[in-house]
Amino acid sequence: MKKWRYASGQLDLTLVSESFGTYLAFFYLEKLGLSAAFYALARTVYAFWDAINDPLFGHLSDRTKTRLGRRRPWLLVGVPLFLLFYLLVFWVPDWARSPQVLPYYFAVGIVLYETMATVVWTNYGALFPEMFRGLSERAGAAALKRGTELFGLILGIALTPLVYAQVGFLGMALLYGGLGGLLVLLFLKSIREDPKAQEAEPLPFIPAFRYTLGNQAFWIYSLAALFLLFAVGLFGAAMPFYAKYALGLGPEATSLLFASVLLSALPSVLLWARLAGALGPKGAWLLAIFLLALGALLLFLPRTLLEALPVGLLIGVGFGGVLVLGDVLLAEVIDRDAEVTGRRREGVYYSVYGFINRLSGPLQALSFALLTPLFGYVSGEVPGPRPEAAFRFLMAGPPFLATLLALALAFRFPYGAKGRMPGAGSS
């Protein structure tokens, strides 16, 4: 039951986060006419604030001591605000839709939303290494967690074009925010933290981050994960454009493309949990990254929906492996740090990891910005002379390069070889 309770939180947060991350660009660029250049600028500027708030919230979470635990108080406060700001991003009143106001409304909205996303995801992720110990238990919990996440992706991404086509983006936000809020609160009521994790005196701010930022294995893993998240995120953000311009299809076909990825990823998580034992977490991770890279390269080719669907299936299998094995390998990095410092510091690690991951947002935005000088695409109102080539490039080129970089880094990761991963019982 502990695994199921924890995994239910992943479903709730995924439903909201992925609908935001996937359709934010489409809503503001195509529907409201925000320029791709300003979209890129706003996401990049936010990254500087993220550099401050991520480590701050992670450190404060590690230092929190209450009868409810270290993470639950932050989640109880952060989740309602997270859902409120999600709603406000998609609720754009008439006065905010003018070209003079819309860029500022967009910028403020994403700063508020992403700040609360930092609080929520950092504290949720920090529960994983504390609650689950050992390769077998972690692989099983990660498979279940990622399986529910993929179900959330099916709801939050693959079905969303059908949802907003019927009720609009505001209706979508109300529906997903309400459902996600209900399920997250149920998850929070059932989770109990280990009181022993609060016993050791937390490290001061500077030593805590000195140990974290000096951890070479953590940097190798985090940079590889950044490139993978960028690739997968760009698949999602570019998919509606790819379907429209490269394949000449509508929202229903977009849903089918997303479904081909997610429905193949969902059953694959069980396979990857087994491969973690058979190949070692690192060996299975390398295989998953290779499949993603191959899928990205093949996306240059399809001209019809039937040609694109098999590529989506391949990407989905690789995506499932990246999700499951990433949880296991990051938890191992944190365990080995606890052996050195004598303290479990999941909050700091997940906050720094979360900040590095959120750099994928500006990277995706900069990829969109490249479309103007390379292909003449400005917005849905000014698509330029070659929108098909623009979004075929966006869907395949940057993701393929990113997965190759991730593969090179993954080869250098020092832990997770078959038969050499310890039981992760440190505390």
Automatic annotation (TrEMBL):
InterPro entries for this protein: MFS_2, MFS_dom, MFS_trans_sf, Na/Gal_symport_CS
Keywords of this entry: Cell membrane, Membrane, Transmembrane, Transmembrane helix, Transport
All copies of domain Major facilitator superfamily (MFS) profile, residue ranges: 217-427
TM stretches of this protein: 20-42, 73-92, 104-126, 147-164, 170-188, 218-243, 255-273, 285-305, 311-334, 355-378, 390-411
GO biological process, one term: carbohydrate transport
Gene Ontology CC entries for this record: plasma membrane
Protein's membrane topology: Multi-pass membrane protein
Compartments where found: Cell membrane
Gene Ontology molecular function, alphabetical: symporter activity
Record protein name field: MFS transporter
Major site of localization recorded for this protein: membrane
Superkingdom field: Bacteria
